[in-house]
Amino acid sequence: MDKEISQAVIARLPRYFRYLGELKDSGVERISSQELSRLMHVTASQIRQDFNNFGGFGQQGYGYNVEYLYTEIGKILGLDKKHHLIIIGAGNLGQALANYMNFERRGFIFTGVFDINEKLHGKMIRGMKVRPMEEMQEFVRENNIDIAVLTIPKEGAAAAAEKLVGMGIKAIWNFAHVDLDVPDSVQVENVHLSDSLIKLSYMINQYENELEEKEKNASGEA
Prior knowledge:
Arc Repressor Mutant, subunit A, alpha/beta, 3 domains, 9 helices
């Protein structure tokens, strides 16, 4: 595809995929952009614009075939292929991710878990043995690993990322609270959990301020 797609459109694709999957599972065969708009709280024109980036998928006055659209968006997202992942960091977050079954339904297969802590070596996490970091390179090569998940403190994240790049990893899902410096050929998705919680705090604060302002205005009018 020659056309460059904006990050805002790309960010909405997983949400379209999720809603369409739920509609498909509910037996809905066809849906209009207006109906999808009401479900997702995205304007119908925005939905049509987003889909037009990839050829449209619909027919004027006919709407969208849910299963076809779900399948095509899945292909765009690369979900028609399986991805093999390893986790670096067998702490609480790493274990929680490894145990989350829904990833496998989407084709993300957790294959190995690694940690520097010798006390964790040999522990079983959903059928996977926690291995020492020294075994990682051979494991990545033998198991065709393309995504690494970092759930370690930020102090060790940069060094771990450098090793992973050297092993030919294609992408890093980074939960360490640090931005990684990697080649353009390696895709990185940073997940800063505290940033997300702080954003929620901001939204609460804004809502409360607006409510307080309305109450002041109402009492002034009275």
